[in-house]
Structure formats: structure tokens, C-alpha cells
Design a protein that fits this description.
Length: 146
């Protein structure tokens, strides 16, 4: 639901950025397929203190994959070219801190192995990189308003 809300906000502010955000969001579908195929179990309670398990498989971390594309797309599609540079810089720092906290929390809570978090980062950042590198998607999204 948060992804849909984020894409709706992107559409309201910069409708030309929606295709790029949707391509980045496709990491969610690849996450689901990857988790279904690999079916890696979550860390056992005997090894780490587990608060609760969500019941799905461990690899890759869906939370990390989601936040890694979502935060970047929000900043790129909404803030760059619309907000002052110093504020955009502060948003990048805040986004990086949120992502680091999510990564550490997923391991600390016993939900994921460190490699699951790395896999989630690779998945989310990979799809974001594809979306940003496809000029057909990124040029209209990053064009300044006239």
C-alpha cells in the first residue's frame, strides 16, 4: 500500500516520473519470485533472539528491497529540481539513515541473515539503477519544469 501511495504522490507532483517509479517498483515482483524459488528459512530462535517471524522465507529481505528503491524514487522524482540543493542533500542523508536502520533492524530482530539484507539491497538498488539508466524513462522524469 505504501508503494501505491508513493507512486500516487509522485504522479501528483511529477506525472512524467511515474513510468520510472513503476519500473523501480518491479523489484517487488522479482522479490516475490526470488523468495518463492529460493525458500531460505529465517534464522532459528536457537541462534538469535527472534521477536517474531513473519512466516515467509528469508532471502532476500523485502523490506530492504522496498526501502532502497522507494526512498530514492521519492527524492529523485519529487525533490530534485524542485527543492533547494541543501534540502535535497539533507533528504539524501535522511534516506541513507533510514535505509541503514532498516538493514540493521532486519538482522537485529532475527528476521534475516546479513546476506538476505545484502540481497535486498542488490535487488532494490539494481532495479532503481535500471530505471534511472533508461533514458526513455529518466529523461522525462528528470526534466525541469518550464
Amino acid at each position: 500500500m505504501l508503494a501505491i501511495a508513493g507512486i500516487a504522490v509522485i504522479a501528483a507532483v511529477n506525472w512524467r516520473a511515474v513510468p520510472m517509479a513503476v519500473v523501480a517498483a518491479l523489484s517487488g515482483a522479482v522479490y516475490s519470485l526470488t523468495a518463492m524459488v529460493i525458500q531460505r528459512p529465517r534464522p532459528p530462535e536457537e541462534l538469535v533472539h527472534v521477536i517474531r517471524h513473519t512466516g515467509s522465507s528469508s532471502y532476500p529481505s523485502g523490506h530492504v528491497a522496498f526501502f532502497s528503491w522507494f526512498l530514492i524514487m521519492l527524492i529523485v522524482c519529487i525533490a530534485i529540481g524542485r527543492l533547494p540543493g541543501a534540502l535535497v542533500g539533507a533528504l539524501w542523508v535522511a534516506a541513507a539513515l533510514v535505509l541503514v536502520i532498516v538493514c540493521i533492524a532486519r538482522i537485529y530482530l532475527g528476521e534475516h541473515w546479513p546476506s538476505d539484507v545484502i540481497g535486498g539491497l542488490a535487488l532494490g538498488l539494481g532495479f532503481t539503477s535500471i530505471a534511472l539508466s533508461a533514458r526513455l524513462l529518466s529523461d522525462p522524469a528528470l526534466a525541469r519544469k518550464r
